[in-house]
What we know:
Blueprint (H helix, E strand, L loop, with lengths): L1 H24 L13 E5 L2 E2 L5 E7 L9 E6 L12 E10 L2 E5 L7 E10 L9 E7 L15
Parallel strand pairs: 2-8
Antiparallel strand pairs: 1-3, 3-6, 4-5, 4-7, 5-6, 7-8
Amino acid sequence: MSRRRATLAPFVGIVAMTVAMTAALSGCDGGQSTLEPVTLSSASAIRLDTPSPFTLMGSGFSQGTGSPSVTFRALSGTPFAGGTAAEAQVAATLLDDTTMTGMTPTALISGNVPIEIVAISPVGRASNALAVNAFAPLVWGLGTWGGAEWN
């Protein structure tokens, strides 16, 4: 019995040390815990039928180094990537800690469509999702009136 305990003792020590280190590190997030939350408070009108400029307002955008981005997410359907994806991510430019600009992705929509926008800071922290109405101008077909129906 004592020989078995002696054989297992090093392994028990390694497991205990691993558990202790895991517990100590579980609160770490790569140094990001001191960063303020990224919040999104407003967006300019979002046009999605053609790449169009947008402006997002919020806070915490300029934390860290790297490139910020913005995710556009449809609340229903798959209007992005030629009608195959529910969301699209585009690069953004920081003007300051509270303003982010960029160009919208294109989507297959007509009229007003509800979407969510999420700002991603340079260190990869995501903002709250902001619900907005994206739009594309309605396209009316041209035809001639031939009595009771369009020809």
